[in-house]
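Hey, can you fold this?
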Amino acid sequence: MDTVARIAAVLLVTVSPAPYVIAQGAESIPALLLRFDNERDLAQKESLLLTLTNQNASAGPALLRLAKSTRNMESRWMAMRGLAKLHYTASGPFLKSSLKSSDWVIRANAARALGDLRIRNAAAPLLAMFAAEQEPGAVEQASLALRLLDIKAAAPYIREKIPRFAWQTRYWLIQALGALGSDHDVPLLAAFLDSSDIQSATYAEAATYALEELAGVSFGPHATGATTLPPPETLVARAWWASHKDDWPHCDDCRRK
């Protein structure tokens, strides 16, 4: 869903004429939006959106009008990303209503934009959307939005969804519970620390980071690049849980920093 835009870089040999060349080549907001909406190649479409948001800080109202009126669903969800990049919070009502779209990509991007824009009054519709959501991609983006908005009321829904989704979606849900859960969720997260294959090792990594956030424990620097499975910090997390699970959450040294 996140297509990487390929943007050509133009090298101007002489310095002094550059402002004149840029001014002459600049397109108006309406012209850029028209090209953006009509473009079918996603890479080119992304490039046009990037040009619009980078060069026109005041493009929010026009981009919102396009997002509301276009029949091109790719234009709509990409416009939502542009609205978030422009920090156009006036798009909040439109984004909240888009959480009920029949298109899951629209729902996913509306949720993510609400989170990125930190629109706090979106908690109720975002929770309702997340509770009913079945599409993995939309569940992922909504779980991140819930984290960004610190909506702790989402924790019961996250717990319910964790066993129903696998791979990347479960990873995102485990991370969300680490941010929004409570002490009572530590045993649930710790159950994912054991890994016997690639899939469970993925969950173990997510659980390690989630436990650090939820329990306030540091398991050491996070491994980067090629490493063993499970990574060293997960082994530390296993040892920590083995020595604390019988007393959790009433152990004296549960939350060493």
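Oh, and this one too while you're at it.
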Amino acid sequence: MSARLSVLMVQPPRLSALQSKIQDQLVVELIGVPGIDLAIVDSLDPAEGTASDRLLISSLAADLAVIDWREADIVLDLLTKCGLSGARAPHPLDQKADPVIDRGMKRIYVFDLRNGDKPSDVVMTLKDLLRQRRVVAIPIGLVAPSKATNDRFAGPDKTGSALKGYSSPGQVECSSNVGAPRPDRIVGSARSPRTDGELDALVDGVNEVDW
């Protein structure tokens, strides 16, 4: 599943012309960004917002970015009243926030538009936060086995010889004894002295073997 970032914008009904222009520009630039889910509510205050606003806010389970015209402490307090709790997380436009140590805690990135940040800077910061969520760490130990390793344990080959685990070609063992001299053709022991007759019989037996 691809990473996503929920963005909650608070758009009160009573805004100045400049405030409305800033928020309109943010909506235009954010609504088409892949991976960013933009939602707009009238207020975070349960006493002022609609029932649909409260339901929307309480349903946001993942990390969240909030764009409002209020300071971060007030935003967090109102979210708690709506049933949504989390920790204020730092970002380039809010460096006063302390780092969130608990990884299981919901991160809430607050953007206070009263700080005078340009809409383009807000959008760029949100894109950076989304990009950070897409970073995937791959453990170094998870390395796919090489073809040579797979071939060593491939099992019986087409000739019927079962190859066993080995570290060098000289240690390959075969279950077939095709081409080896039959025991009844070999006379005597390697460590016992042989008579002339035994040696002659051994030579004759070796000569008769079909190599």
